[in-house]
Amino acid sequence: MEGKLIFISGGARSGKSSFAERHAISLAKLEKKALYYLATSKVTDGEMHERMKRHQHDRDGSDYPWRTIESSTNLWKVANKLQPNSIVLLDCLTVWLTNEMFRDGLMDDVWMDEIKQKELIDKMMKSVAAILGHVDTLLIVSNEVLNENVYDRSLVQCYSKLLGELHQKLVEQADTAYLVEAGIPLLMKGEQLCVES
């Protein structure tokens, strides 16, 4: 079994996470499925703590029950914790990529190696495949990050490159892809799978 993949991206504070949560709830209700929130964030400062609290409060106030699983790296390990045929919202890819890049004190110069970059993308895509092999629908939220200085050989450029490659691979595999701008979801690929609640 391979689940459906929905990819949702947008700029900072674009409304992408709120849209993804509403969309996940509507799918879970429509199909009467278990609903999971796969949180990749770690509390790093007061602002992050407040944002996480706000999102948790929003989910707790939902009229459909969420089950939250926190995992910042190696998301393939989560697949067996998910009820088969469930709806899973992974929020977010950009934080997950950051966590993978800086796990275990890995140094910046490691990521200048193209082989290491490929290994990381392969590892993350295998995690996505492991989850998709276990669930009905996986929604992945990500940020649009722009860094247009093609001569920049910094870690920021490397991160932008890796994120761009992940976006391309995920959208290619996705059944549906949205770009959220100013709170408005724009369908970029596929068909609307359900009506928002």
UniProtKB/TrEMBL annotation:
A Pfam family recorded for this sequence: CobU
Pathway(s) this gene product operates in, as recorded in its UniProt entry: Cofactor biosynthesis; adenosylcobalamin biosynthesis; adenosylcobalamin from cob(II)yrinate a,c-diamide: step 5/7; Cofactor biosynthesis; adenosylcobalamin biosynthesis; adenosylcobalamin from cob(II)yrinate a,c-diamide: step 6/7
Catalytic reaction(s) noted: adenosylcob(III)inamide phosphate + GTP + H(+) = adenosylcob(III)inamide-GDP + diphosphate; adenosylcob(III)inamide + GTP = adenosylcob(III)inamide phosphate + GDP + H(+); adenosylcob(III)inamide + ATP = adenosylcob(III)inamide phosphate + ADP + H(+)
One function term, GO molecular function aspect: kinase activity
Keywords, sorted A to Z: ATP-binding, Cobalamin biosynthesis, GTP-binding, Kinase, Nucleotide-binding, Nucleotidyltransferase, Transferase
EC numbers for this chain: 2.7.1.156, 2.7.7.62
CDD domains reported in the protein's UniProt record: CobU
The organism's place on the tree of life at top rank: Bacteria
tRNA-binding is among the record's keywords: no
PANTHER family: BIFUNCTIONAL ADENOSYLCOBALAMIN BIOSYNTHESIS PROTEIN COBU, PTHR34848
Family, similarity comment: Belongs to the CobU/CobP family.
Function according to Swiss-Prot or TrEMBL: Catalyzes ATP-dependent phosphorylation of adenosylcobinamide and addition of GMP to adenosylcobinamide phosphate.
The protein, known as: Adenosylcobinamide kinase
Species of provenance: Paracerasibacillus soli
